[in-house]
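[User] I wish I could look at a protein chain and see how it folds. I have put the entry right below:
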Amino acid sequence: MPAASDATVPTGPAGTAAPAGPATPRAAGSGTATPPSRQLVRAIAPGAVTVAMSSAGTPAPGYRIEVRNASGTPVPATVRQELPDGTRATTVTAGGTTTRAAGRAAPGEITWQLTLPARSTTTLHTALSAPPRGRAVTAPACALSEDGSQPYDCATATWSGGTVAAAEVTPAPVWRRTPVLLAALTAALVITIGALWWWQRGRRGRATAAGPGRPPASAGGPGTPLYSGVPVRGSVYPQPAAPGPARRRRTPPVWLAVGVAAAVLAGVVGAAAWTATQRVAAIDTQKQPTSGAWVGRTVSGPVGAPLRETAFEFTVYRVACAAAATAVSDRECQATVGVRNLTPEQQTWHGQLQRAYLPGGTWVSADEAATRAANQGRDVFAEPVSAGSRKVLPLVFTVNGTDAPKQLELRSGVFSAGVRVDVP
């Protein structure tokens, strides 16, 4: 595809245009050429080439990619942007080309072959076809070595198209929440039953006070002798007053005790049922069985989305598999993964905990030997991830047959629920 008119052309320190391509150096005393990317990758300091990305507020998905070279030498690089399913590139600047992935109707990626001038920033623009209404589009981009084997840095951006994020949805009012309603109902029942009991108790007390054996208020004062119910004054031998009825200790009626117990029991059972329903609804029925994943909850998302678990934030920028020679042969699938340590301490992780799930439900762990070779001999699992630091590196999974992984599971530790990345 031809470059758009607003292409940004990187310039060197003196303001001259960057060369179209690097010269291929030769090894001393040898007649064969040394791959320039391999030679420059060793010389480039970590973090010298960085990528920043943002989405445009346009009706169709648009992205701005900034690739910065902070080193003092020009760096040949391949910049690659992934295209989500169902989209195609409509605008590509700076001479980028689109390629179709096997089995897809839309282009799979946009690729630029650039030479990044020393201490410069190269800006690229892309635009994609409009997706269905309400769908967010995430299209990550990476800067890699010239042959595309070693990632320098990656970034991601999501075009939302004005959709409302889930975090912005207004929660239900407090008075409409099930636990609050159950508590209010239980309290109302208890108060009503208590008021009825108090009213019944006062009524019985008044009836007892007006019963037989109690003289009327006009019958005389205290200590006045009675004869046949008539007060006698001046009697030499006064008759003692008739003793009142013995008062027994009152207890709540049976119906009241049963009612209060039933109300409390109903409230407890209702709250327990609601809690159990919420927990069952939160269970991911599509989750593959894992061993020991009991800390936290598994988070799922697409390629390019940052996903956080107990210790790490994982971002899968790209998954590419080599062509299968036969239906039963092994082949390598390489995932470009960003790992950020969110904890205040350094963390270690293990290759056996990183898995690729195939369509049939079987899975394979990361091929540590192939991953070490893809990282130029570095054992990335033997190097702890420092607190607050971030790494972008390739992980290799060796799979059998022609099927590509449909999901990746990445975890920082055996007791972490980890994250799951859906591979298109």
Residues 175-198+253-283 form one domain. Residues 1-42, 163-170, 280-293 have pLDDT under 50 and may be disordered. The helical segments are 36-43, 178-209, 254-281, 368-374.
